[in-house]
Each structure stands twice: as C-alpha cells, then as structure tokens.
Amino acid sequence: MGALFPLARESVSRTTLPGSVRAPGAARAFVRTALTGRSAAESFAPTTLDERSIDDAVLLVSELVTNAVLHAGTRVEVVCRLQPGPDAAMEGFGPEETAGPDDVPRDVPRRPGIVIEVADLHPASTVYGGPESQRRGRGRGLQLIGALAESWGVTYHRTRKAVWFRLDAERAGSEFDAVPTSALGRELRFAETLAPIAPREQRDPTADWVDRGGPSFLAEASELLTGQLDENMVAALAGQLLVPRLADWCAVWLTTESGGLQLARVWHSDEHRIDALRVSLERHPPPTGLGSAGTSWPWPGVADSQGAGGSAVCFPLIAHGRSHGVLLLGRAGVPRMAEGVVRLSEDVARRVAQAVATARQYTRQATISRALQRRQLPMSLAHIPGVDTAIVYEPHGEGQTVGGDFYDLFPMGDRRWCFLLGDVQGSDPEAMSVTGLARHLVRLLAREGHGVESVLNRLNQALVEEDAEAAEIDGEQSRPRFLSLLYGELEPDPGGGGTRCTLASAGHPLPLRLTTRGAVAPAASPQMLLGIDENPDFHADTLALEPGETLLCVTDGVTERRNGLRQLDDDDGLSDILRECVGLGAKAVAERVRRATHDFSPEPIDDDLAVLVLEAVPAVEPQRMA
C-alpha cells in the first residue's frame, strides 16, 4: 500500500498495481485500509464514516480495477482521497467549490466524502456507462457506480485514462435524494442495477465468452502464430483460430508484390458455404488502403442459410508501418458485434499481421540465400569419356544447400578435365563467399593454361591478400580463412583405356587409390593449407589409373566423423571401407562410403560431408561393320 499523506484540506493515499488477476483483491485491501485508518477518522471528525460507505467504496473500486485489467491490460494506479466537510478544513473555498482531484469537477456539494480514482495506460478505449455498457459486453460495473456514487466521471489524458467516483461520508438531506430516505433510495438504485434489463437489440452471445476466455485465447493465438514461416499457413491458422470462437466465417487477403490484394483463405463454420462465400468475396474485395480497424463491411448474402443477415467487420493487417493484407470477420444473427469481440479480434489481427510480416521476411531471406548458395556449386558435372564419376554432397545445417565444402568437375580443352574438392574453415556466409571465390578462380586459372602447382600458388596468393585487406578494415575482429583443397587434372587414354591423373593436396585429406586387387594407398603427398604462408611451394603428384581402379576423394566430414573419442579414419578406417568396394562402380562406392560414415556413430553428423569418386573404365571399342 502506498503511503498516506495528510494535506491541509484532504488526505491522499495512492498505490500502483500490476495488470494481473490479483489487482482487484489488492485494490480492495488498499481502499479498506485507507478508509478504516487513523487518517480517515481525523479527516471526517466529528462525522463517522459508516460501514456501508466503506463497503460501497470497496465494491466500486473492485469493479473499476477489474475492468481496467481486463480491457486495458496495463498497470493500474488507485488514488483514495478523504475530503473533509465545510468546516475549517474547507476554508478558502467558494460556495460551489470543494477540494478534490483535478479530474473531479468543482461544482459538487460541500460535504465530507470519499473520492477514488482508478487510472490505466490505455487512453484510446471508450468507457460506456449505464445500460450501454452491458449491451457492449462490459458488465454492470459502471452501472453500479452510477447507482451508488454521489458523482462519477471519466477523464482522458494523452497517455492515461482515469475513472473516478465520489461517495458521501454522511447521508444528505432530501434536497439530494429523489426518494423519501437516502438509505431507501440506495437500495432501490442497487436493486434496479442488478435487475435484468431487456436489451434493445439482440446481444452477441460471443461477448460473454470474450469476457471469460479472451486473455487465454490471445495467448493461444500468439503461441500458434509465432514461428510460422509460411504466410499461407498463417492465413490458414487465422481462420481456424477465429471460426467459430469469434466469428461464423472469416476471410484473409494478403497483399501482392504489385500492391493489390489476393484472397488467400476463406473459412466458414459450415464448410458447404466456403466456395460460394469465396466467389462472393472475390467479386467485392476490400480496398487496399484500409486504415482504421473495426470498419463495418456489407454482409454477403451467401454467408448464412436463413438470410437473417449479420455483422461483418474489416481489420487491416499492418505491421511495422506496412500493410500486409486485410482480415474480414462475420457473425450471423447479430446486427452489430459487441465491443469486446471487436477489440479481441483487433488484437488477433495485429498478431496475424506480425506473423505474416515475419514469414515474408524469412521467405525473402531464404530466397536470397538459396540464390547465392546455388552459385557456390556447379550447376552440372562434366561427363568424362573413360572415367565414371560420382558425387555425394550433404551440407550441415537445417535449410542449407551449400556449406563450407565445395566441389567441381569441368572440361579444360585438349581432352583434359579438372576436378577439385575443397573445405573452407567455418560454414557461415563469409565461408560461403570464400567457397565461391576459390571455385571460380580455379576455373579461370585452369582455362588460362595454369598447371596444378601454378593454380594452387596463385589461389594461395589471392587468399592471403584478401585476409590482409580484411584485417586492415576490421582490425582484430577479422579472422583469417584457411582453405584445404584437393585439385587435379585428368587425361583419359581413349585407345588403351585408363587415365593419367596429376593432383596435389593442400592441407586436405589425402585421396585414396583402390586397385583391382584390393590394395589401397594414398595417391598424393600432404602439403600445407592455402592462405597460411605467403610463399608456399606446392608440388603435384602423377599417377596412372588403370581400368577398374578407383580414386576416392573426401572431406574431413568423413575422416573426422566421431564416435566418442574415436574417429572414422583412426587406424586407416577409411582405407578398410574402400578395400571392401572392389568391383563396385563409382556410384556404388560413393554410397558405400556415405552409409559407412552415417553408421559410424548413432549421433547425427555435425559437419559438411562430401565424397568424390573417379573410376577409370575400359575403353569402348568401336563396333566394326560386317
């Protein structure tokens, strides 16, 4: 409870409560303490504040705080003012003045009284009093205030809204009551408030459900919509959420790239009416510039079977200042939706708009990412006469089509072909940029006539220079990018079969050669990574692949596959796998290595995986004419 401050003419106590279900109980305890304390007795002496006035004040503040928590959802400030009578405490006031808060008018009678003010931080909502509040689904709280309080009112500020009421500490004479006694008048007003009121118009039964289950429904809607990365799925979920709980039917339009509206989803509690309703709504779409929420919309005749009509309301789907579509709700059998239903629907529309905006942003980023990733790998692999080829490529990471590993196989002219298999440190966008640089630069250098050693030396120089430039720009935040690469040239022998292979391994797992007799041996010597030394001296190895022999090239996603403390290539594990592939074609060898890598551990693979298999095949003799 806030502190009680005695002033010259009145005593004021105040407290701030969170917008939770505990706020009404805390407000009741606060007001009762303020009205039964010592300051209250001193303020109203010699008048005694009777128990009925205290009970009335506790009841009314409970109703106001409950309304503020339910409909505003913000923190609530409660102020209790104890105003003395027209004795010495009232000196200095004119005949039509009294001490009171700024929100209370000055023309109330000069009698001891209690003024209680409840303020929330939602100034945009309108407060309805009398029977109108009940028809709008707001309960009987303000009707009780109108019946029990001597005066009450609402004050709208720029950032807050305050509802206040005043109760007399002593009962007024006949000039203030329209009934013989004030007590009898109070009972009659109270009974009239609680008595059922015949509605002037048909009440939407959904309003009662909104009062009870609105907050939990919003929480459910937020949970379902959060994380949806497809805008059409968001539109479908919106229909299932709103029908039939808030509406009998709904439609969702989404904006197109050209700025128009496209009907994305129509949902009806009677599935047989969906098609007819869709046709009707497509003929009469809402305007693209719809600005205000809760705009009434003409009722489509095909929406209900009995032709009784109903109420339809439009909500723009606006997020981050941009329109993403329109949500249209319809409720049959009611000429006007209750304010609580409209307000809750507006909250749902805001969440739908945010979900659509998030899904569209993800789609844009995913499209850009896929387009960039496609450029990191070749669109197709070259066909090499006399060599059977196979590639297995599995990037690590959900939704990734390219990782830190890369490959290529392309013709160079003069019956020569080049192949490469590389691995960039990391798998982030910067790693992918290095991947694209390396693959395209190797192609360019090879087609300009550079041999294996020259290609590796010039690629190393380019990486070192790029790292130096990045260090000058980013300073200590710059990280060097190392690259392992296996690069080679193939010259098939069209006459005798087989192929001549010249290759070099720069910090890459060594390629393995499988002979027709089942012998396995490394086909290159180890050398340093690219991008470390400015003046490396790379050299190439040359071998002849006889028909039926296989060259296996892998990245460290295969050799360093772990099972506890053990790696797949410990004790020449990869050689053992390849030795069992004698007699298999290139594609079968690649699949055998891939399956063995996955089966090595029950844990999922945590790195990119790439396998390139080259198998020399016998030369095909041309058929002789008979």
In a nutshell, what does this entry contain?
This protein is α+β, with helices and mostly antiparallel strands and 626 residues long.
Key attributes of the depicted protein:
34% helix, six-stranded mixed β-sheet, single chain, alpha+beta, disordered N terminus, six-stranded antiparallel β-sheet, 626 residues
Estimate the global geometry from the Cα principal axes: elongated
Question: What is Rg?
Answer: 40 Å
State the helicity in percent bands: 25-40%
Distance between the termini: 111 Å
Largest sheet: 6 strands, antiparallel
Question: Could you tell me the strand content as a percent range?
Answer: 15-25%
The number of distinct helices, counting runs of at least 4 residues, comes to 15
**Which strands sit side by side, in order, in the main sheet?**
1-2-3-4-6-5
Instruction: Give the total of beta strands.
Output: 24
Low-confidence stretches: 1-8, 87-109, 132-139, 171-185, 195-201
Helix/sheet category: alpha+beta
Q: Mean pLDDT, as a whole number?
A: 81
